[in-house]
TrEMBL record:
Broad class of enzyme this protein falls into: lyase
Protein name (Swiss-Prot/TrEMBL): Indole-3-glycerol phosphate synthase
Keywords attached to this entry: Amino-acid biosynthesis, Aromatic amino acid biosynthesis, Decarboxylase, Lyase, Tryptophan biosynthesis
Similarity comment: Belongs to the TrpC family.
Gene name as annotated: trpC
InterPro entries membership: Aldolase_TIM, Indglycph_syn_Halo_TrpC, Indole-3-glycerol_P_synth, Indole-3-glycerol_P_synth_dom, Indole-3-GlycerolPSynthase_CS, RibuloseP-bd_barrel
Keyword Amino-acid biosynthesis carried by entry: yes
Span of domain Indole-3-glycerol phosphate synthase: 12-241
Catalytic activity as recorded in UniProt: 1-(2-carboxyphenylamino)-1-deoxy-D-ribulose 5-phosphate + H(+) = (1S,2R)-1-C-(indol-3-yl)glycerol 3-phosphate + CO2 + H2O
Protein EC: 4.1.1.48
Source lineage: Archaea, Methanobacteriati, Methanobacteriota, Stenosarchaea group, Halobacteria
Organism per entry: Natronorubrum sulfidifaciens JCM 14089
Transmembrane segments: none
Gene Ontology molecular function: any one: indole-3-glycerol-phosphate synthase activity
HAMAP family: IGPS_A
BP term (GO), one: L-tryptophan biosynthetic process
Length: 261
């Protein structure tokens, strides 16, 4: 695991809060998960770019907060053609909650990703979801946590930021990998991150481009670099835009492949 001195102050404080957050030790969850690879194949089959749209009320890098109902946001994203929904459950820096995820998962029929900073096994049992994010940089024993995640029925989405982390993820058995274009040290986004890591991902692994995708041109760029799907929060939530149309924002990105196919 990384030294905290290399992390942006906001990220160090997120991680500290995550370590202190209690998990639910009463019961080990047994989730009946919807397959993300199947949902991606379904989108491809009808000409939609596979977009995982993120319900992210705010973030350390956002220009504001949207306090719309998470269920309405998620439904608007699905109406715009989203292949899956990501819901932040981190409460102290992203305005998320496990309850919001539960409500969203009941309301939509696409796979739902739990987006949080899970660092221990007991934290897996807080809330059901189809996919669960594990961030290589923050997890001590990745293989054990991947196993624990799968034991409960979740599909682990394993996040990396460089080639060394990709190797760690592959060695631990990850089969869905997200490459985060945002550097957790400086919080800066660089789409070249995905372009440099993606060519080293084996073909049988699903690879997702995460963060900083804000236009149809960015979508095309990530698809050309090999992205099976894209994870997009800010450009869809449009925090500064206040009440901008989430369905339209999603659709613009979902349709970005139309001319190529
Ligand atoms: O809002 P963006 O730039 O479209 O990014 C979405 C998503 O990739 C980002 O929220 C994210 C990627 N990895 C994370 C880990 C924790 C919290 C958030 C994230």
């Amino acid at each position: 695991m990384t030294s905290e001195t290399e992390l942006a102050p906001a990220v160090a404080s997120i991680l500290e809060a995550a370590r202190e957050r209690a998990g639910d030790v009463d019961a080990q969850l047994a989730v009946d998960a919807q397959s993300l690879p199947d949902a991606i194949a379904g989108a491809e089959a009808d000409g939609r770019v596979p977009v995982i749209a993120e319900v992210k009320p705010t973030s350390p890098t956002a220009d504001g907060t949207r306090d719309d109902d998470p269920v309405e946001l998620a439904q608007a994203m699905v109406d715009g053609g989203a292949t899956a929904i990501s819901v932040l459950t981190e409460p102290s820096h992203f305005g998320g909650s496990p309850a919001a995820l539960t409500r969203v998962r009941e309301a939509v029929d696409v796979p739902v990703l739990r987006k949080d900073f899970v660092v221990r096994e007991d934290q897996l049992d807080v809330v059901e979801a189809d996919l669960l994010l594990l961030i290589v940089r923050f997890v001590d024993d990745l293989e054990a946590l991947i196993t624990a995640t799968r034991e409960r029925g979740f599909q682990p989405l394993v996040e990396v930021h460089d080639r060394a982390e990709l190797e760690t993820a592959l060695e631990a058995g990850a089969d869905i990998i997200g490459v985060n274009n945002r550097d957790l040290g400086r919080l800066e986004v660089d789409l070249e991150t995905f372009e440099s890591v993606a060519p080293h991902v084996p073909d049988d692994v699903t690879v997702i481009a995460e963060s900083g995708i804000s236009s149809p041109a960015d979508v095309q760029r990530m698809r050309e670099a090999g992205a099976d799907a894209l994870l997009v929060g800010s450009a869809i939530m449009d925090h500064a835009g206040g009440d901008s149309d989430v369905t339209e924002n999603t659709q613009q990105l979902v349709d970005a492949g139309a001319t190529d196919t």
